[in-house]
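Progress against Task 2.4 (sequence-to-structure conversion) is shown through the following example record, which the project officer requested during the mid-term review.
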Amino acid sequence: MPLFYRSPLTYANSKGFEVVYDNAGVVGLFGELKLNTSIGLDLAAFAEYNKYNMKELSHAFHRPELQTGVIVSYNWKEKIVLTTNITYIGERTAFEHSLFENGVTTEYPILAGYTDVRLGAEYRYNKNLSAFFNVTNLLSQNYEIWYGYPVQQIQFLVGLSYRF
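Structure tokens generated for the chain above:
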């Protein structure tokens, strides 16, 4: 299983990652409920729980045990699609190379769980051309997806899509 961490060799030069591999046993449980209506309203809820049993490492670094969320989508006359996505990512154990002395540590930073709220809108001009607008981190929360890499506050994405 690949696990990523912030490289001590790239602290000053860039925001790079290193990868460490370990064999792991993973017991996972995933469930999803979906409701598709005839009026264009779609609802979905999901939950995923994973328990990691690492062979060499002490933790499955940056991997949450729990992820859950709700997705709501409304499609109006195949022209306008509105979506919202609320996702919770559970706390994760991070790997921080600077905490090691002589290759040993018992202290690992814990990244708090977070909730990400996203909104999106798409206008479909025809079957090939559409325009979209997405907003992520709508609650403008401060959290880290990876240790030492804080997420930007509220984010906007505007674009065009052409299918051929």
